[in-house]
């Protein structure tokens, strides 16, 4: 594992990627039969604050997108499209040329253009040109970490999922999956922030171990390398899990899931106030900040497949 250096706590520590917010691509389509599942982000939510988990996953309350999160989506999209090009054409210049079409695609979403218009009215907000240039810098930084002309991914933005024998459905999206001719697996995740300090490194590895567990359970192969690329600082963090660790990690996920099921059954999701609350969109509804959560949406939860206990009327 590479050496770490301190990095201030970032709002991104609490912020869900744009694809992973309620209604985002990590969620099943509205027409698909819904069934509760666990993703790395949702597991991390519950560990951070059970009430935050409820607001995001069960109430499905809307959240504001941030320019930083949208920039992350833009950079991920460019790096995904880069690998559509023939290997020898994956140059830094070609990657920069993907910036404008990727932004045009993203900005077709009115919520994203509105966000930008709102930000532009603030004195501290960057102009669109500055913001796009900052995304271009992150893409440039990618080339200091890897040579994409020498990589042929098996998958990009790939859905990985498995149902464990006890019925727990694990699902998530891997930024990139590389498979060597020997069958060795490498899981790669792009981060648009800087490398985190140790406490947050554990959170990043939690996500990667989650993917490694799903791949192990579906392919029978323990990934040889989990690789996090921190584009802001041009750092890489690599980790090689072993089978015993994945067995223990599976137990951890089961314990988190049992705690979630208990919370749903009792409709008891406690707030957990930490400094990450500064970036939570739901303070107005949070008892830790003098707010009152809305009534538990029992019917919606049941329709989504959660097994809930009958609601007990209280005086
Ligand atoms: S503000 Fe409330 S709901 Fe949000 S993270 Fe903090 S304790 Fe949890």
In brief, what are we looking at here?
It contains ten helices and five strands. The protein has 315 residues and is an alpha+beta fold.
Q: Can you describe this structure?
A:
By secondary structure, the chain is α+β, with helices and mostly antiparallel strands. The chain has a domain at 38-257: Lambda Exonuclease, Chain A. Helix content is 41%, strand content 12%. The chain contains ten helices and five strands, in the order αααααααβββαββαα. It has helices spanning 40-48, 50-58, 67-82, 92-97, 99-106, 110-120, 128-145, 198-219, 243-266, 298-303; strands at 155-163, 169-179, 185-191, 225-230, 235-239. The protein has a five-stranded mixed β-sheet with strand order 1-2-3-4-5. Helix 3 packs across helix 5, helix 3 crosses helix 7 and helix 8 (198-219) packs across helix 9. The longest helix has 24 residues, at 243-266. It starts with 39 loop residues before the first helix and ends in a 12-residue tail after the last helix. It binds iron/sulfur cluster (SF4). The site of iron/sulfur cluster has 13 residues, from helix 2.
């Amino acid at each position: 594992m590479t050496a770490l250096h301190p990095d201030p706590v970032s709002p991104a520590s609490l912020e869900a990627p744009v694809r992973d917010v309620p209604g985002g691509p990590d969620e099943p389509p509205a027409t698909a039969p819904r069934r509760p599942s666990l993703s790395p982000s949702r597991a991390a939510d519950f560990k951070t604050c059970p009430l935050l988990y409820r607001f995001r996953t069960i109430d499905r309350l809307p959240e504001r997108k941030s320019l930083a999160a949208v920039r992350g989506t833009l950079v991920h999209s460019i790096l995904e499209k880069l690998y559509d090009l023939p290997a020898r054409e994956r140059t830094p210049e070609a990657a920069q040329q993907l910036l404008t079409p990727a932004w045009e695609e993203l900005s077709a979403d009115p919520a994203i253009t509105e966000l930008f218009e709102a930000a532009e009215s603030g004195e501290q907000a960057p102009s669109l040109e500055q913001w796009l240039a900052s995304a271009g810098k992150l893409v440039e930084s990618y080339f200091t970490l890897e040579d994409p002309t020498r990589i042929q991914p098996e998958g990009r933005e790939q859905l990985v999922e498995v149902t464990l024998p006890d019925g727990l459905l694990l699902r998530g999206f891997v930024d990139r999956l590389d498979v060597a001719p020997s069958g060795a697996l490498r899981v790669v995740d792009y981060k648009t922030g800087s490398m985190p300090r140790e406490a947050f490194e554990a959170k990043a590895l939690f996500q990667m171990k989650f993917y490694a567990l799903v791949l192990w359970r579906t392919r029978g192969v323990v990934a040889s390398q989990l690789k996090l690329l921190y584009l802001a600082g041009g750092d890489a963090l690599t980790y090689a899990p072993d089978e015993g660790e994945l067995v223990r990690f599976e137990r951890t996920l089961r314990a988190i899931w049992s705690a979630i099921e208990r919370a749903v059954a009792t409709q008891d999701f406690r707030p957990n106030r930490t400094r990450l609350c500064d970036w939570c969109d739901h303070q107005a509804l949070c008892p830790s900040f003098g707010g009152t959560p809305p009534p538990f949406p029992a019917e919606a939860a049941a329709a989504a497949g959660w097994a809930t206990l009958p609601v007990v009327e209280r005086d």
